Amino acid sequence: MSQSLRDRLPYRPNVGAVLFNPQGRIFVARRADLPNAEGAPGGWQLPQGGIDEAEDPATAVLRELAEEIGTDRAEIMGEHPDWLTYDLPDELLGVALGGRYRGQKQRWYALRFLGTDADVRLDADPHPEFDAWRWADLAELPALAVAFKRPIYEILAVSFARFARPQP
């Protein structure tokens, strides 16, 4: 796609959740539309989603958790201080995100998971975004991401490192 199309398209407002279990590990899920072998890079990501019109980002992150993983049994522990953006690669521009956005502008939150593994229900939505999930070390997060999201995940691995420890 041309650079002029990229320049004309806005960023989609979005929130993301770095969900920590009591052992200090994070929730990652494999995208159902990007099937790949276990451990292959690119198919794993953190829960994230769009912010509705006039919706508070902190409210949106809990709503997105409930929609994407079937539970909002979590509390916010921290927030990355800046909005982070990524651009879609050329081959996805005009295709992904309904073709209406150049990428996403994201507000990221660290959350403490208050539920149990049984509360996670990827099939809660009739069109699940994910087909598998697991707990991972925060440090391995960037290696799991698609290349265009990797810089954001590298920032989050540093920004939220203080939460990646067992909780009392």
Automatic annotation (TrEMBL):
One Pfam family, short name please? NUDIX
What CDD domains does this protein map onto? Answer: NUDIX_Ap4A_hydrolase_plant_like
Domain spans labelled Nudix hydrolase: 10-158
- Cross-referenced SUPFAM superfamilies: Nudix
Gene3D superfamilies cross-referenced by the UniProt entry:
Nucleoside Triphosphate Pyrophosphohydrolase (3.90.79.10)
Q: Name any one GO molecular function.
A: bis(5'-adenosyl)-pentaphosphatase activity
Q: Which InterPro entries match?
A: NUDIX_hydrolase-like_dom_sf (IPR015797), NUDIX_hydrolase_CS (IPR020084), NUDIX_hydrolase_dom (IPR000086), RppH (IPR022927)
Residues spanning the signal sequence: none
A GO biological process held by the record: ribose phosphate metabolic process
Span of the annotated motif Nudix box: 49-70
Q: Give a yes or no for keyword Hydrolase in this entry.
A: yes
User: Which cofactors?
Assistant: Mg(2+); a divalent metal cation
Can you tell which superkingdom this protein's organism belongs to?
Bacteria
Which keywords does the record carry? Hydrolase
EC number annotated for this UniProt entry: 3.6.1.-
Q: Does the keyword Hydrolase apply?
A: yes
Q: Which PANTHER family match?
A: NUDIX HYDROLASE 26, CHLOROPLASTIC, UDP/ADP-SUGAR PYROPHOSPHATASE
- Relate the protein's function as given in its record: Accelerates the degradation of transcripts by removing pyrophosphate from the 5'-end of triphosphorylated RNA, leading to a more labile monophosphorylated state that can stimulate subsequent ribonuclease cleavage.
Spell out the family assignment given in the record's similarity comment. Answer: Belongs to the Nudix hydrolase family. RppH subfamily.
HAMAP family associated with the record: Nudix_RppH
**Protein name, per record:** RNA pyrophosphohydrolase
Task: Tell me what organism the protein belongs to.
Answer: Rhodovastum atsumiense
